[in-house]
Structure formats: C-alpha cells, structure tokens
Amino acid sequence: MDTVVDDLEWHGRGPHESTADRRASAFIGRYRGSVADQVTSYVRPQDSGSRADTRWAALRDQDGEGLVFAAPDSMAFNAQLHRPDDLADKRHWHEVPPSTSTVVRLDVAQEGIHGGTWDVPIRPRRFALLAEDGPFKALWRILPSRAGEDPAERVRRHTPNDLNYVPWTPFDDVARGELSEYSSTREFLRHPEAGPLLQEALGGDDFDPGTLGASIDHPVSHLVASSRGAIPLSLIRSILSRVATP
Fold first, then answer.
1. Which sequence spans correspond to the domains of the chain?
2. Hey, which end of the chain has fewer CB within 10 Å, N or C?
3. What does 78-110 look like in DSSP terms, one character per residue?
4. Are 151 and 10 in contact (CB under 8 A)?
5. What percent of the chain has a predicted confidence (pLDDT) above 70?
6. What's the confidence (pLDDT) of residue 2?
7. Global confidence as pTM
8. Are 11 and 152 in contact (CB under 8 A)?
9. 176-184 long-range contacts, CB within 8 A, separation 24+
10. Nearby residues of 210 by Cβ (< 8 Å), 6 or more positions away
11. If we measure between CA atoms, which residue out of 205, 201, 3 comes closest to residue 98?
C-alpha cells in the first residue's frame, strides 16, 4: 500500500507488539497509531510489530479513506514501513533505506519467538508450527473504509455472512474433576458445572463466547489479563474448588 496510508486502528492485542508466546501483557482492546509507531526498535533492525489475536485492522489515509482487514476468528496482523528482507542485512537503523510503501501481512498461525531456529525446532510444542499441524485454511475479508465511518461497524455488517463466521457452540461435556488453571477457557465453558459459573462471570446469558476469538483455546488464567482485572484469579480458583470431585 502507499505510504500515505499510515493511520492504523485495530481490535486485538495491544498497544505494543505481541506474538504467540509473548502476549500476556498485551490486552485485548481497540487501539490506534501510525504505521511508523508499530516498529519495535531493537538494537539491530529486524522484523517486529506483530499484533496477535487481531479481529480486524483498518489502514487509512489522512482523509479517512482506506481498507479494513477482517478475520472470521482472529489473525496475526502486521503493518510496517519495510519488508523483513529490507532489514535482514542491516546492522544499524541508519542503514535502513527510506520507506516507499506500507507493507501489510496477515497470518493465520504464528510460531513463538523464544527458542529454536528454522531447522532446529526446540520451542515449547504449543508455540511451534510443524508440518503435521497443517494444512491451515484462512478466509479474510478486505473491505473499503470510508471517511467518517466506524470500521468496527463495517466489520459487524459484513463478517458474519461473508466470512462464514460460526458462533461458538459447546462440545461434549468435560468430565468432572478434570479442570485446572491450565485448562482452556473452552474446556471450562464445556464443563457442566464450571461452565455456567464462568459464563455468569463473563456477562451472563448475553455473553457470546465467540467474541473471545482464538483466546478461547488459551489457558483460562489468561482471562485475568484480557479482562483487565474483571475476572481475578481468585474467582477462577473459587470455581475450581466448587467443581472439584470430593
């Protein structure tokens, strides 16, 4: 995209960068900033600025015109002034040439950044992407963004139908006594006793678990961070104590 399209707004984790294994301090919310501000200035120039668990992102020019990128569930979104290849052989930031475009990348899955290399996979398994994990399928919607229009409203109008969004539905019940703080939010919501208790804490019958996106499969303790304190760890432990088998 042209560099004049430099106003970025997104719904997902922020305000700083986040990855598959580094996102606990990046809360789900709605954020805005320039594309240039998305760069993390590490000592050596390198790829940065990923936004994990992004529901939608809008890139607009100074007149409010641009594009909205929407995912049916969530995506890793990245908008930078340079391609990773532009930075790969640079040792200092002053060596990076001026930008001639805004580079947008959408990823359906992402490896963690801690440990391992491309040919020696020593990352924790839950943060690694191996051949047997695929194939991956993704369907994204790229929508026009008009001046004065709320991008979230456009996403709401188009995503459910055009992206075949499937609302969250419970699966088979989880047996009693199998839950822990490391169980996923989905497993908690499936549980015949813990499910109603957590649903009530999240907002009662009006709460749609589909709004949790990919984080529904993260440990339930992550809700402590993503809810910004609305769901304390003591509440999760209280639910566990009430449903534990004698």
1. 7-162, 185-243
2. C
3. EEESS-HHHHTT-SSGGGSPPP-S-EEEEES--
4. no
5. 78
6. 80
7. 0.61
8. yes
9. 176/243, 176/245, 177/243, 177/244, 177/245, 179/240, 179/243, 180/240, 181/219, 181/220, 181/221, 181/233, 181/236, 181/237, 181/240, 182/219, 182/221, 183/219, 183/220, 184/216, 184/217, 184/218, 184/219, 184/220
10. 165, 166, 167, 168
11. 3
DSSP string, 104-162: EEEES----SSS--SSS--S-GGG---GGG-------EEEEE-TT--HHHHHHHHHHHH
Q: What is the CATH number of domain 7-162?
A: 2.70.98.10
Q: What is the mean pLDDT of residues 155-171?
A: 50
pLDDT averaged over every residue in the chain: 78
How far is the C-alpha of 21 from the C-alpha of 38, rounded, in Å? 19
